[in-house]
Each structure stands twice: as structure tokens, then as C-alpha cells.
Amino acid sequence: AKEAGRNTYQYYSQDALARTQRRLDIEHALNGAIDRDEFSLVYQPLVHAVGDQPPSIEALLRWESARLGPCSPAEFIPIAEKCGEIIRIGDWVLDEVCRQARVWQQAGLSFDRVAVNVSALQLRERGFAERVIALCNRHGWSPTRLELELTESALIRDTDALRQCFDVFERHGVPLAVDDFGTGFSNLHYLNRFPVQRLKIDRSFVQGMLHDAGTAEVTQAIVHLGHALGMRVVAEGVETPAEASMLQRQGCDELQGYLFSQPLRPREMVQWLRSSQE
Ligand code: C2E
Ligand code: CA
Ligand code: CA
Ligand code: CA
């Protein structure tokens, strides 16, 4: 038994070692990744549940490291946050999204907002809001059409700096969405404190709603809550027509997921927009 115990211990410590090594490899490879042009964006449409108003588009980051190969944002974003690299990466994403959106607009494609995922660390960075506005101006992209998707964890700290940041966004009409809504904190005070326009129901709820009545109650409650506060509600991770029609019946405003489209390379996104306009 003692022997087995020791083996288990060795097994776990090797596992922990491998994970630490992987984290260090990623941290190392992130260094200079922007200059090596290793990042790109893919785009996923958000469609209206009812009617045929133009869709919106969420930008999702992709990283093909020369050293490590493709690496998913779920794996590298938390590491980029820990080592501080997320600030520069986040700026790159915002810059690229505004540039791309402007190009698409000038090509006559019709869409509403472009949405960008923003880390809590970016929000806390001095002058972030001003930088976002300056970036929009530089690219000739209206700040009212650049939506920032924030997680609940970014909104729980009510500091002066955060408040100033949101004042700037509000003054320029930058729409804010709460991403992964329902998975974070149960304290909802921030919904009244900050100028949030949209709630995004996390995909875990959407995936459960057809199999579990309780989960369907949760999505319905989020829709009611959002509407009561004057917000729009979006569901992410919609994969089947049955999920879409249930969310539609519940009054959800916008839907996003593989049912409508996977995240697309820019050229594929253009084709998708063209064919959905026909
Ligand atoms: P998220 O913002 O909640 O994005 C939704 C994730 O679900 C994306 O994964 C998307 O590709 C995936 N997805 C979309 N539709 C479906 C569906 O129908 N079914 C399933 N199973 N999945 C679907 P992705 O691209 O791997 O991104 C993962 C997370 O990484 C994002 O979650 C977001 O939190 C973060 N992330 C991505 N890009 C950025 C970025 O530019 N900046 C920051 N800070 N975070 C980002
Ligand atoms: Ca998101
Ligand atoms: Ca999510
Ligand atoms: Ca997220």
C-alpha cells in the first residue's frame, strides 16, 4: 500500500510538473507573438431571434504559435493574464477588429455591432477607455458599434477607476455585454451600477435546457431579468433547432452558435454576410 501511495504521489507530481512546464512554454512563446504575426481573429455571427435585422459579429482570438502550434484561447488567455501580456494582445485585438469592421462596412456589407472579449485586467489598465475611443477614431469606426463583452468578475469590483472607465464608455455610447452570464457571482448589484446593454446566457445553460426543466427555468429567468432591467438577452452555444425555438419562445433577443455558423475566417465571414443578405 505504501508503495502504491508513493507511485500515486510520483504520478501526480509528474503531472503537476508537466503542467508547469506547459505554462512556462506558453508564457515564453507568447513573448513576441504579436511581432511574429501569430495571432488572428475568427468571427461568429449573432442573429436576431425574430425578424431579419442585420446580424452582429463576435471576434474570437486564434493563436498559431511557431513553437507550440495552435493553442486555444481557453488555454493561453489565463496565462497571458497572469504574465501581463494580455494588455498588448487585447490592444492588438481591438485594433484589428476596428480595422476589419471598417473594411467590411466600406465593402457595403450590412451588420450591426462587432463584439470583442475584454479581460478584467484590460479594464483595470489606466487609460483603457480613452485608448478604445482613440482606436475607433483612428479607424473611423463608430464606438456605438463596438461592443465590449465583459465577464461578471470584471464588474464586481466597484472602484473609482472602473467607474471613470464606464463613464467614458457611456459618454461615447460604447455598448457593454455581460459574457457567460449566470456562471459567475450571485451578487447582481453591478447590473444597476454599470451601463450594461446586454446579457449573454452562457452556453452551459443552453446545452442543458432541453434535458433539464430547472435549467430551462434559469434561461427563462435570465431573459425576464434582462428585460426587466431594459437590457437585451443573447444566448450563446445554440447548436440545435430545438434549442433555438425554445429560446425564441422564451423571448431571447439574439442567438449565436454552431446552428447558425461556426467562427469563420474573415473571407468566409464575408461570404456568410453576403448570402444572409440575399
Ligand atoms: P466566449 O466568449 O464565451 O466564446 C464562446 C466560445 O464558444 C468560443 O470558443 C466559440 O468558438 C465557442 N462556440 C461558439 N458557438 C458554439 C456552439 O454552438 N457550441 C460550442 N460547443 N461552442 C461554441 P473559443 O473561440 O475557443 O473561445 C473561448 C473563450 O476564450 C471565449 O469564450 C472567451 O472567453 C475567450 N476569448 C476568445 N477570444 C478572446 C479575446 O480576444 N480576448 C479575451 N480576453 N478572451 C477571448
Ligand atoms: Ca464572448
Ligand atoms: Ca461562454
Ligand atoms: Ca468567456
From TrEMBL:
Residues 23-277 form the EAL domain. This is Histidine kinase.
